[in-house]
Write a structure and sequence with these properties.
Strand order of the largest sheet: 1-2
Structural class: mainly alpha
Number of domains: 1
Strand content: under 5%
Number of helices: 10
Number of strands: 2
Distance between the termini: 66 Å
Oligomer: single chain
């Protein structure tokens, strides 16, 4: 292949990675506003309840769950890489995940009957602080893993610089000493910490919680065991999966 064409292809891949990262950032920020009823035009409680709201919302969340799980499987990645190449695989995954979330934001049907509401201003402020702490855990955890690798930027940059694509090393640092999946812990906190819990928000929190536990337990954990072997098995024995302080030493 002509050298200029190779360089152009690498540049297009790099540009795609940066555009995808920007889409992720916009989606992530909107996600915070959507769940927290803050800033954005449409939130989890915006608007009137439409017909078949529960069915529509369950379908939307199922689309995200299927996309997120199927595209993350090694067998799918292997097939996907034969079409688009290793450098683009993560960026495409991040893009599709962002689009699945944007679909939820767009088509979500609010169900605004209130399950609980905190009247105390002080307790409401505390709950909001916990909400922000959850998102903070999510963001910090991405950097503890390798933020730019997780979101595809490292791969496209290494490809552009003609470097071998590398995977981040397994580390048990900071939040990862507390739980094996702090990203999921952060999302759980953010989804449940609200001073006003509507039926729609509760539906969202329940389904996403079930999905996280099932996906981590039966998909991600198995793949990590296969990839890391005894090192991860030892880590499993010592460290809780998602909920802190749920591992107790046997007497």
């Amino acid at each position: 292949m002509n050298l200029n064409l190779i360089l152009m292809k690498k540049f297009i891949i790099l540009l795609f990675g940066f555009v995808t990262y920007f889409v992720f950032l916009v989606t992530f920020l909107y996600f915070i506003g959507f769940v927290g009823n803050l800033f954005v035009p449409k939130t989890i409680n915006s608007g009137e309840t439409g017909p078949n709201a529960i069915i529509i919302n369950v379908v939307l969340l199922s689309v995200f769950a299927m996309q997120h799980s199927i595209m993350a499987r090694p067998s799918f990645k292997k097939w996907w890489n034969t079409i688009f190449g290793i450098a683009l695989e993560r960026s495409i995954y991040v893009l599709f995940s962002s689009l699945a979330l944007l679909l939820i934001f767009w088509k979500w049907q609010p169900i605004n009957e209130v399950i609980w509401e905190v009247d105390s201003e002080i307790f409401a402020i505390i709950i909001k602080a916990i909400f922000w702490a959850g998102w903070g855990i999510v963001l910090i955890s991405t950097f503890l893993i390798s933020h730019f690798h997780l979101l595809g930027l490292q791969q496209v940059f290494e490809n552009f610089k003609n470097k071998n694509l590398t995977d981040p090393k397994f580390k048990m640092n900071f939040f990862y000493r507390l739980v094996r999946h702090p990203l999921m812990l952060g999302f759980l906190i953010a989804f449940w910490a609200t001073p006003i819990m509507t039926q729609g928000h509760l539906l969202f929190a329940i389904i996403t919680t079930i999905y996280m536990f099932v996906a981590v337990k039966f998909l991600e954990e198995k793949e990590l065991l296969k990839e890391l072997g005894e090192e991860y098995k030892t880590y499993q024995k010592k460290t809780p999966m998602i909920i802190p302080f749920t591992k107790f030493k046997k007497k």
